[in-house]
Specification:
This protein is an alpha+beta fold. The protein is built from 5 helices and 12 strands. The longest helix has 30 residues. This is LPXTG-motif cell wall anchor domain protein.
Length: 249
């Protein structure tokens, strides 16, 4: 009776199992790379970026234009104001939500929110929203009850009567802040940009600048590339070991 050891199929030193395994591993890595390209693609990230605008008019006529990107489908007016980065003091009224007392350094303290309401003229922070036809509508229900979506523009004016807010679209606010196109994110965190314009129309302050694309590869791609190389190295070592084990059996 023969005592020859019968090798399992594919273990006769032909190397084909190793080739098959190598092909499968490389195929899986290629599929993973394609998936990563879609997930980490700047264009894919930018497609989910929304943007809203904020116009703030001070009592001396200064105007602040804020461009706010966000990834949610919508925000409240209060969330938009908070994300603008402008210093804000608020107070809360039961059943009515938040009232803005001071904004960007002008107004009243939160413990005396309408400190100038008894004056003549009576100044307070008026809250408005811009309609598609360029008309400003006073928001009587406050920022907590306002829904802001992609392309919307909100306005705040420290005034006693006429808010004197300019009709300006989100695209115009974007251009003022150096953004070429609404929601043109680069795959990074949503941007918040703002410019201040004096009463003569001159830009006096630019609080932020959009980052320019220098053509370099994002660190996300570099990190994932290193991960793929490491995974490929481990896979090839495994393949070589199995082939060597098969040739020695």
């Amino acid at each position: 009776m023969s005592t020859d050891t019968i090798l399992p199929p594919g273990r006769r030193g032909s190397g084909r199992p190793g080739v098959m395994l190598s092909t499968r591993v490389l195929g899986a890595l290629a599929a993973l790379a394609m998936l990563a390209a879609l997930v980490f693609s700047p264009r894919a990230a930018a497609a989910d970026t929304n943007a809203a605008g904020l116009v703030v008019r001070h009592g001396d006529g200064r105007l602040v234009y804020v461009y706010v990107e966000f990834t949610e489908p919508e925000l409240t007016g209060m969330e938009l104001l908070t994300r603008s980065g402008l210093a804000t003091e608020v107070t809360t009224f039961s059943g009515l939500g938040s009232a803005v007392c001071s904004l960007d350094g002008e107004g009243c303290p939160s413990d005396d929110c309408f400190c100038q309401s008894d004056d003549n003229p009576s100044y307070y922070w008026q809250y408005l929203s811009l309609t598609p036809d360029g008309t400003w509508n006073l928001q009587m229900n406050g920022p907590d009850n306002r829904t802001v979506r992609d392309g919307d523009v909100d306005g705040w004016s420290w005034a006693a009567d006429d808010p004197q807010l300019p009709a300006i679209s989100i695209d115009e606010i974007a251009r003022l802040n150096g953004v070429d196109g609404q929601g043109a994110g680069d795959g990074a965190e949503p941007r918040v940009l703002a410019v201040e314009v004096d009463p003569s129309g001159q830009v006096t302050t630019r609080t932020a600048q959009p980052e320019e694309d220098d053509g370099s590869m994002p660190t996300t791609y570099l990190a994932f590339g290193a991960l793929l190389i490491a995974a490929a190295g481990v896979a090839m070592v495994t393949v070589l070991r199995r082939r060597r084990s098969g040739s020695q059996a």
